[in-house]
Design a protein that fits this description.
The chain has helices at 11-18, 37-45, 77-83, 94-101, 146-153, and strands spanning 24-27, 53-60, 63-70, 74-75, 89-91, 118-122, 131-137, 140-144, 156-158, 161-162. The chain is an alpha+beta fold and 163 residues long.
C-alpha cells in the first residue's frame, strides 16, 4: 500500500504516516462560535454527518474508553458499557480526557493518543468506504477506511450510537 505525502504535525497524522496508511487530511477554518465541532466539520468538508465521526472519552467501571460515533447521532452509554463487558458508563471529565489523550476537546483523535485506551467504533462505520475523524486539532480531519482505524487503534466494532 503506497502512502500519500501528508503534512506532519499532529500525533494522529504522525501515527498514520508511520503505519504507511492511506489517508487524506482535510483542513477547514474552525469557528469557535459553532455549537458542534462534528457538525461544523461535516458542513465545512461537504460530507454527510453519517460519515464524520466524533471521538468521545467515557469511563466504564472506572476505566477510560474511547467511543467513536457518527456526529449525526449520540453515544449510547449502556451500549458502550455492554460492548466492553462493563456495567456502568458515564462521560469522562473533559480535563481528564484532555490530559490522558494529549488532545484538546473538539480535537481529540482516536489515533496517536498519549495513552492508548480501549477503543470502540460504532458499527455504522462499516457502511462507508471511508470515514472522517479528528486529526488531532480543531479544524483538521483525517479521512480513512474504517478498517484502517480499527487496525491502528485495535478497536472493536459495536452498535454504540443512537439517532
Amino acid at each position: 500500500m503506497a502512502k500519500k505525502k501528508q503534512p506532519a504535525g499532529t500525533p494522529a497524522i504522525v501515527a498514520l504516516t508511520a503505519a504507511g496508511a492511506e489517508f487524506t487530511v482535510h483542513a477547514y477554518e474552525h469557528d469557535p462560535a459553532h455549537p458542534s465541532y462534528g457538525e461544523e466539520a461535516a458542513q465545512a468538508m461537504g460530507v454527510s454527518p453519517d460519515r464524520v465521526f466524533k471521538t468521545l472519552i467515557a469511563e466504564v467501571d472506572g476505566a477510560l474508553v474511547v467511543a467513536v460515533v457518527p456526529v449525526s447521532g449520540s453515544l449510547d452509554l449502556k451500549a458502550l458499557a455492554a460492548a466492553v463487558s462493563g456495567k456502568r458508563a458515564a462521560m469522562a471529565d473533559p480535563a481528564l480526557a484532555e490530559r490522558t489523550t494529549g488532545y484538546v476537546r473538539g480535537g481529540i483523535s482516536p489515533l496517536g493518543q498519549r495513552k492508548r485506551l480501549r477503543t470502540v467504533l460504532d458499527a455504522s462505520a462499516s457502511a462507508h468506504a471511508t470515514i472522517c475523524v479528528s486529526a488531532g486539532r480543531r479544524g483538521l480531519e483525517v479521512e480513512l477506511p474504517p478498517s484502517t482505524l480499527t487496525t491502528l487503534t485495535s478497536a472493536t466494532t459495536s452498535p454504540i450510537s443512537r439517532p
